[in-house]
Amino acid sequence: MNDTSHAGGAASLDVSIASKDYHSANGRPLRALEDLRLTLPAGQAGAVVGPSGCGKTTLLRLIAGLDKDYVGTIVLPEHGRLGMVFQEPRLLPWRSVIDNIRVAAPHAREDDIAALLDELGLAEHASHFPRELSLGLARRVALARALAVKPDLLLLDEPLVSLDAALARDLREMIARLIDERRITTLIVTHDLREAIALGDRLYLLSARPAHVVATIDVPAPRRALERETAERIEAQARDAFAAARAGPQRDIPSA
Amino acid sequence: MIRFISLAALLLLWQIGASLSDPRRLPGPAAVFEKIYEEAVSGGLFFNLTITLARVIAAFALAMSFGTAIGYVMGRNRLADRLLDPWLVVLLNLPALVVIVLAYVWAGLTEVAAIGAVALNKLPNAIVVVREGARALDPHLEDMAHVFRFSPAARFRNLVLPQLAPYLAAATRSGLSLVWKIVLVVELLGRSNGVGFEINMAFQLFDMRLLLAYALPFVALMLGVETFLVQPLERHVSRWRRGVSRRLDRV
After folding, report:
1. Which residues of A touch B249 (CB under 8 A)?
2. Measured between CB atoms, which of A88, A105, A132 is closest to B243?
3. CB within 8 Å: A129 and B247
4. Mind giving me the DSSP string for A104-121?
């Protein structure tokens, strides 16, 4: 039994998943998530962090409504309008950059789309096809597409994965600025603790499979001006929580 | 240029062959072109070409419409695929001649029977090709469309059609060549006009000039359709593939 609904007045995200099972090739059920609960207040950015393969993307798919085969309840922010950036940009290869955005956000005004392209440094690539773009640019297009729908909830699945350090830093700063300015309720999934601290107002630490939230840590505001000592303290706190929960190997969490 | 040289070589071979054999069995290019001119002036050539072309278009449109719809459903729905697959195998293996004769017997020597028989011969081919295309639709893009709440029309126009385009182009290509060949057989067996009918007349009269005078313009016409309609359309729908060289690697 599952239920995905839209909140009446509040704009928070409420996730309460009793269980999510997969069926392996030999027919045996494989439990991905168990007793996973998280609440993300309206206008905040939550970062779900955990070891690789623990079920982070599965969680995001359930919230996005791409998989309805679970036991539990998911309450989306009011109206439930979603914007999502997948790990692979998933742009329509036969549509130009601007048309990819128009197709996903048919009600968006041309002025708004142009402003968004400008803000994300994509104006000169508006007429390019996705195959002409680097991964970094394609991610930005995917981000522009997600923002163009003016989402009530923005979902980001490993938005910086596979980018080199400089590109990842640029995109991280861009994402942090965009979600801070727009106050969009955002859920980011990442395996990188530092990335989670840089982007999330609240961290949800997931255990290894079957995943559940082992600890929730609030990052002091303003997150973007976090002092190094504070960031290191949060990082240490998170490591302790992971260790206490025996959640996955330490190598999945970069050292300070 | 190479195509032109190749065509000229074919004409030369034809001329050599004609000069070495009985002109009643294999008339030379000049004699055939003269006959084409005569038939064109009399109006018979254009009339019969138009009739045959109309039948080709009607049968092709029917087969492609139904074939695309059925192929798509079979490619996306396992139950439909399992239910309809045996029918498809029967249709694929039913000789064209059997379908034509049965159509004429059951529906009479009518236009409906003729076009229906041709369409039914092309139908399984279209279904098989489109079914493969529907099976290959990218589930990742489906997920994206679900998240962004694409309308059914937007999904069809922006997701399904562009992915099916190469398969539809392949079905169009093979379909056109198959359809026009079967149309000639249908006309030969049960119609009183069209290129197939004229070819039958030429065969009865053993008039090879007349036979080639009808066959060659129709081949040229179908070649024109392929070159000036199908190929440009295919290039247009696949223009997005041609941008790799401009990839911006470090931005």
Report:
1. 134
2. A132
3. no
4. H-TTS-HHHHHHHHHHTT
Q: Does B140 touch chain A (CB under 8 A)?
A: yes
How many domains does the structure of chain A reveal? 2
Say if A87 falls within a structural domain. Answer: no
Interface residue of A61, A82, A132, A162 to substitute, partner B, most B CBs within 10 Å: A132
List, in order of start, the domains of chain B with CATH numbers: 29-233 (1.10.3720.10)
Phi-psi region of A27 (alpha: psi -120 to 50; beta: other; left: phi over 0): left
Task: Give tens-digit pLDDT for A164-194.
Answer: 888 888 888 899 888 888 889 999 999 888 8
**Type of residue numbered B173:** R
Name the burial class of residue A229, with classes exposed (0-12), middle (13-18) and buried (19+) by CB atoms within 10 angstroms of its CB: exposed
In terms of domains, do A111 and A235 share one? no
Task: Kindly list the residues from chain B whose CB atom is less than 8 angstroms away from the CB atom of residue A88.
Answer: 140
Segments forming the whole domain that contains residue A199: 2-81+151-252
Residue contacts between A and B (CB atoms, under 8 Å): 75
Q: Kindly report the pTM of this predicted structure.
A: 0.79
Indicate whether B74 pLDDT > 70: yes
Per residue in B32-71, pLDDT (tens digit) is: 999 999 999 998 899 999 999 999 999 999 999 999 999 9
CA distance A218 to chain B (A): 28
The interaxial angle of helices B161-190 and B44-76, nearest 10 deg, is: 130
Q: Does residue A48 lie in a domain region?
A: yes
Q: How far is CA B226 from the centre of its chain?
A: 9
CA-nearest residue of chain A to B150?
A104
Q: Which residues pair with A45 in a beta bridge?
A: A186
Give the mean model confidence (pLDDT) for residues B214-232: 87
Nearest-neighbour CA in chain A from B187: distance (Å):
42
Claim to verify: residue A163 and residue A48 sit in the same structural domain: yes
Identify whether A86 is part of a domain: no
User: Could you report the predicted ipTM of this complex, rounded to two decimals?
Assistant: 0.86
Kindly provide the residue ranges of all beta strands, DSSP E only, lying in chain A, ordered along the sequence: 2-6, 13-23, 29-40, 45-49, 71-76, 82-85, 153-157, 185-190, 202-206, 213-218
pLDDT at B249: 44
Chain B interface includes A94 (CB < 8 A): yes
Q: What is the mean pLDDT of residues A139-160?
A: 93
